């Protein structure tokens, strides 16, 4: 009986360790899947290869993501995304083209007066 007790105790310990390890792996897989499911256009991402970019389009049918990397658009599998950071959807400041046009017109008119 004593030999059986010394054998059961390590088996229980190993079984408990395996249970907790698989539980934490499953939890990490669920978090990753949720991260990929919530990915949307405008989010900043990093691929598993270390490429930084912004999500341009998510195609759930094909399971792909189109990434904008400084004007270059690349298509990746969704599983190739390592991290996702919600992007800021800040609108750029409007360009004041009227002032530039007025300055150019004024310069042209002044040059024409000088030439006459």
Task: Report what the structure shows.
The protein is of the alpha+beta class. The protein has 2 helices and 5 strands, in the order αβββββα. A 5-stranded antiparallel β-sheet has the order 4-3-2-1-5, with no helix packed on it. β1 and β2 form a beta hairpin. About 10% of the residues have low confidence.
The low-pLDDT segments are 90-101
Strand content: 25-35%
The overall average pLDDT, rounded, is: 79
Number of strands: 5
**Span of the ends, CA to CA:** 119 Å
The structural class is alpha+beta
Helix content: 40-55%
Question: How is this structure best summarized?
Answer:
The chain has 116 residues and is of the alpha+beta class. The chain has two helices and five strands; from the N terminus they run αβββββα.
Which helices and strands, and how do they pair?
Layout: H1 2-37, E1 44-47, E2 52-59, E3 64-69, E4 72-77, E5 81-85, H2 97-115
Antiparallel strand pairs: 1-2, 1-5, 2-3, 3-4
